[in-house]
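can u do me a favor
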């Protein structure tokens, strides 16, 4: 009976509540704080909303790993819009789509917990009306605010031009923001502080022995490169004669020259396409990059981009340069990371008088009757139409198109079935080839569109370069699902990507015990309080960690990044011991790694509870497009007949021909600063 009465009370209450709703009687207003969680790009995101009189009045982030520069506009703008418009139908922020959804979803969940009418909040669409069309005048318009665009804008302003820079995304930076700090430059001074390894000496001797008639060199297709080989041999011979009596691995210093850098670009970028054609870098563009690599690096220093010459020596006791993955030679310099570099460049640009507009997308190049580029059309995020008239012209710096795998697939003649329209990408979402398409429309020629580079060591889940462990290419040990090495980790990126994509699910594993000298595991892998970045990766299920190999093998039975290879301790021990012996002998008899370092001192690790070892699952994802508009050494864009298109310059990933079929790791940043500067200076002087 009691049960019956309480059921009746419940039914009455529900009836009353429903009646309250349908009869338009005021329902009780909601007050208080409520939390909601949703999945973000980097981890869970939790928000706390304050509700007064059934309205969301405050949004506070309780847990948020997405604090970096890329998402800053989303983090500021979306909560403000939700509160202002009492709406959950908010537009996502360009370039931060996943984070935008995470914020909206977390607030939606908090609103549900509060008992707010979520459907009504979703119905409440915000109407955005474009402003009146506008016309802006300037000398130089730079389209794209990544590294190439910012260096072009700064250089043009330094030459006294009035400069406007427009950027499609909500923040500046493009892929240059996400890129590492690797910058290749031919730097004899740095090489002099290093010791040439025995493997490097063998490589140089191998170059001296090359026969120009060797069909593998493809001088029949690219005869202009023979001269570079001759130059390289002369450089090596001169180096040897200046260092008679010195021994590799002991007192022979490091070696580098523009011809060697160019030779690496050639051999690293010479590729056969599926269609049977061969592709290689344009020799004159490769020379421009190699010869100016150090000047541009020094210029970056002059404008305050802090650089380091690889302060911790890798192959000797003196400071020197390192080798980023796929660089083929230790000429990689480091400088401040993207999150610091881009705001700094933006500050310098503004100080030099560049006017910057974000969320402003270039849509069309304007051509006058004589065929000169005289400006561009653009559209702002609210739909406002802009016409930008230029006296000098436009610098295209809109980056590549790896954020659009369909476009990559359409042009592809390299990856075949290894590439699909669903292949993940390391890129900013805004890099969709806009500049290339605008260029094509006005008759610009394109080259190298058949190849896009994959970044072998990307997250298997997101495609990004996050959630994993990297180190110098010479020190990395890559294994397959059986715990065996399968490739020369010092090889070019496409070679690495192809070898790894041939494995089960295309997933491979990097063993990591820290960078640095043989047997000195990195401080960041220390015991229970190891570096928080590593700890977050372990806890986030991205990598496996163990204080010894038994623990590591055990950890690999649980899933990380969706895989659980379950390595045995024996597999790992065999592979590491074999690798260590190759480092000790400086000879990799399995894969012929030319520069081999990073032996893991298992005895040290296993007898010290406060150091450990990590395995990071990785998979190749789309990274950098080789193709783009054709330029000459002065960064002027050419048409199909090889003629200069007046008033149009281009620099960075939007261009083709610089890297041939594969870009060396560490050459992208060199490319954007070398050619960005050239484009900016020339656009300012209308050359
Ligand atoms: P690069 O390394 O060549 O400088 P990035 O990827 O770093 O290339 O930068 C290219 C920038 O160009 C990105 O920030 C991207 O958002 C921007 N961009 C792409 N398309 C357009 C466009 N249509 N208008 C303005 N900016 C664009």
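np, heres the sequence
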């Amino acid at each position: 009976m009691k049960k019956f009465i309480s059921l009746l009370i419940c039914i009455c209450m529900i009836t009353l509540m429903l009646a309250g709703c349908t009869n338009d009687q005021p329902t009780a207003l909601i007050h208080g704080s409520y939390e909601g969680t949703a999945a973000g790009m980097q981890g869970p995101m939790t928000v706390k909303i304050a509700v007064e009189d059934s309205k969301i009045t405050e949004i506070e982030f309780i847990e948020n790993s997405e604090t970096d520069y890329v998402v800053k506009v989303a983090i500021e703008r979306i909560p403000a819009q939700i509160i202002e418009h009492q709406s959950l139908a908010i537009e996502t922020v360009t370039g931060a789509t996943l984070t935008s959804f995470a914020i909206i979803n977390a607030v939606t969940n908090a609103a549900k917990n509060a008992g707010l009418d979520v459907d009504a909040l979703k119905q409440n669409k915000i109407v955005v009306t474009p402003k009146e069309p506008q016309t802006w005048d300037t000398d130089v318009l730079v389209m794209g605010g990544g590294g190439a665009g910012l260096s072009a804008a700064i250089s043009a302003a330094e030459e006294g031009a009035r400069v406007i820079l427009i950027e499609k995304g909500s923040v500046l930076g493009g892929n240059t923001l996400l890129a590492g700090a690797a910058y290749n430059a031919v730097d004899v001074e740095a090489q002099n502080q290093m010791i040439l390894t025995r493997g490097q000496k063998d490589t140089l001797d191998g170059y001296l022995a090359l026969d120009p008639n060797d069909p593998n060199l493809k001088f029949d297709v690219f005869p202009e490169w023979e001269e570079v080989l001759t130059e390289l041999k002369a450089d090596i011979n001169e180096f040897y004669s200046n260092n008679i009596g010195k021994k590799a691995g002991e007192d022979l210093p490091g070696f580098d020259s523009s011809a060697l850098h160019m030779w690496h670009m050639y051999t690293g970028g010479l590729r056969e396409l599926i269609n049977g054609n061969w592709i290689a870098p344009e020799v004159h563009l490769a020379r421009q990059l190699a010869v100016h690599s150090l000047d541009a690096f020094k210029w970056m220093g002059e404008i305050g981009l802090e650089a380091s010459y690889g302060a911790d020596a890798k192959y000797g006791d003196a400071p020197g340069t390192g080798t980023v993955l796929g660089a083929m030679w230790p000429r990689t310099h480091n400088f401040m990371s993207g999150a610091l570099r881009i705001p700094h460049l933006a500050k310098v640009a503004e100080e030099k008088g560049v006017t910057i507009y974000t969320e402003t997308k270039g849509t069309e190049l304007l051509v006058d009757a004589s065929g000169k580029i005289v400006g561009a059309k653009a559209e702002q995020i609210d739909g406002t139409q802009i016409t930008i008239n230029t006296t000098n012209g436009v610098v295209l710096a809109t980056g590549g198109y790896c954020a659009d795998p369909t476009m990559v697939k359409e042009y592809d003649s390299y990856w075949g079935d290894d590439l699909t329209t669903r292949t993940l990408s390391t890129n900013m979402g805004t890099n969709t080839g806009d500049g290339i398409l605008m260029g094509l429309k006005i008759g610009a020629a394109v080259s190298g569109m058949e190849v896009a580079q994959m970044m072998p060591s990307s997250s298997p889940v997101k495609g990004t370069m996050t959630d994993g462990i990297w180190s110098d290419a010479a020190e990395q040990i890559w294994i397959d699902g059986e715990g065996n090495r399968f490739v020369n980790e010092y090889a070019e990126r496409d070679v690495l990507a192809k070898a790894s994509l041939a494995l089960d699910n295309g997933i491979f594993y990097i063993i990591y015990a820290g960078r640095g000298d043989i047997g000195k595991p990195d401080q960041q892998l220390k015991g229970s309080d190891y570096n928080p970045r590593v700890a977050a990766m372990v806890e986030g299920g991205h990598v496996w960690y163990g204080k010894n190999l038994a623990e590591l093998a055990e950890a690999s039975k649980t899933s990380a990044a969706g895989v659980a290879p379950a390595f045995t301790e024996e597999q790992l021990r065999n592979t590491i011991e074999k690798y260590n012996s190759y480092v000790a002998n400086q000879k990799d008899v399995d894969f012929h790694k030319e520069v081999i370092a990073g032996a893991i001192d298992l005895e040290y690790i296993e007898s010290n509870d406060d150091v450990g070892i990590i395995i990071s699952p990785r998979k190749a994802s789309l990274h950098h497009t080789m193709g783009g508009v054709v330029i000459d050494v002065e960064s002027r864009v050419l048409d199909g007949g090889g003629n200069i298109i007046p008033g149009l310059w281009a620099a960075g990933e939007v261009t083709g021909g610089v890297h041939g079929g594969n870009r060396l790791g560490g050459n992208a940043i060199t490319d954007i600063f070398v050619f960005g500067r050239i484009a900016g200076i020339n656009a300012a002087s209308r050359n």
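The pocket of adenosine-5'-diphosphate is lined by residues 143-149, 166-169, 173-176, 361-362, 397-399, 428, 430-431, 434, 652-654, 672 (CB under 6 Å). hope that helps!!
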